[in-house]
Every structure is written in structure tokens, then in C-alpha cells.
Amino acid sequence: MNCQRCGATIDPGVHECPFCGLQTPAGAAAAQMAEMARLQNAQMQAQQNAFANEQRRRVAAATIESSATTAMWISLVGTLLCCSPMGIVGGVFGLRARSVAMKSGVAVPMKATIAIVLGLVGAVLTAGFLTFAWVKGSQDEETANARAAALDKKSASKVTAARLDHETACQLGESYLLRNGWDSRSGSQYSNIECPGKLTDSTDSAELEDLTSKYNSETLKVSVCFKRGVKWYVDRLAVGSCAAPPPGAGADASARDARVDSAAASASSAPPSYGRPIF
Ligand SMILES: [Zn+2]
Description:
Helices cover 54% and strands 13% of the residues. It is an alpha+beta fold. The chain is rod-shaped, with a radius of gyration of 45 Å. The structure holds zinc ion.
């Protein structure tokens, strides 16, 4: 066989002329085969890539769907419980699921959107509830302070008398409870304060039994312990008789005093310990 360009004699098996470099028919056929193989290979690679991408997308979609479901339930329960921060937590989870979905090119699940909306509703409800509680609390406190001030005004002329009368004692007791509260509750939370009990007095101290009051459904019943200096004043409130537990150190924290007193009483009546430390 001769080369078509330079006419040299060449082996028909070679792909190009060894003298001028022209491609032989065998070389053209081999080149075509190689190109076909390359195309086929590229197609297969593309199919494999597409399959892997689809697989990844499905896994991402399943993960996003499941986190969106969690987010929706959290915010749903939070909203149903009204004013629980759980609703907001669910909303934040929903936002996270939404952002992951958008980054992964997956449709944002409806549940994530529901979680976000419920989260917003929860945030508004919580803010509203807290504001309401705050306004109600300060209103109650204002009412209690005004009532205490009115009571103090009424009793002002009587507290300097030598003897304490029942009505004045009741006014002093109510004012004290409204201002100081009892048992870690503020005074504004007590209502329907009444004095059905009897008043016993001496020259420098007095006791009004059974000052009663309502706290929600509970009834508070305490004795009011008075002292007399320049005028009559409430020393403390006591559960049971004023005389029973020895008076505590402070006059303002009656609830704590009552507890300290009972602890002291039980300590003194306890049998002596034999060298063992008490605490
Ligand atoms: Zn040639």
C-alpha cells in the first residue's frame, strides 16, 4: 500500500504514514472507534452522576421532611399550651428546615411553613400574655397600695389611743398584709380580708385572732400581733397564737420568722445529742 500524499510504500496496519504523517484509512477507523468509546463513556458517567444526585436529593428531602415534621409538632404543642416558648422553638426549627431545603434545592415542606407560622403565633401570644400578666400585676399592686393607704388614713386617729379597738386592729392588720404579703406572696394577691376573730390586748401588746383572706381558692388564717410604742403597730403575722412561738428577730419577714421559730422550738425540745454534730 502507498501513501496517498507522498506515495511511499507503507504497512497497511499503521495509522499514519511514517514519512509525511498523513492518516491512513486504518488510522481514521481507529480514531472513529476511540471517539465513540469516549462518548459512550461520558454518557455512562453522566447517568451515574444523575443517579447519585437524585439519591442525595432524596436523602436530603427525607431528612428535611422529618425535621419539618418535628418542628411542626413542637410549635403545634407550644401553641396549644398557649404562651409556652415551645411554639417559638418549633418556629426556629421550621426556619432551619426551610433554609436547608432551599440550599439543597428541595421544595420547602409544607410542615416547615406551618411550624414557622405557628412559631410566629406563639411568639405573639407569649408576648401578649407576658404584657397582660405584667399590667395585671402592677394594677393589682396599685389597687392594694391605694387600699392600704386608705386604711392607714382611717386608723390614723385611733392608733395613738391607750386601748386598741377591734375595728382599728382589723384595719392595721389588713394594711400590713396588703403591704408586706405573706409566705412569699405579695399582698396584692390577697383579697376578701376579714377579721371575725377576737382581739385581746394589754397595755403594750395585743393580738387579733383569725385575720382571714382568700388567695385564689385557698383561705389564709393568721393572727395579727400588735405592739404599742408611741402608737399601736403590727409587729408581725403569726400562724396560731402570737404567744406560742417566741418572737423572731425581724418584724418584716413574718413567714420566715414563723419557720425559724418552729425550727428553734423543735431543736430545743429534741433529746440531747451525744457528741454528734447537729448539722
Ligand atoms: Zn506519506
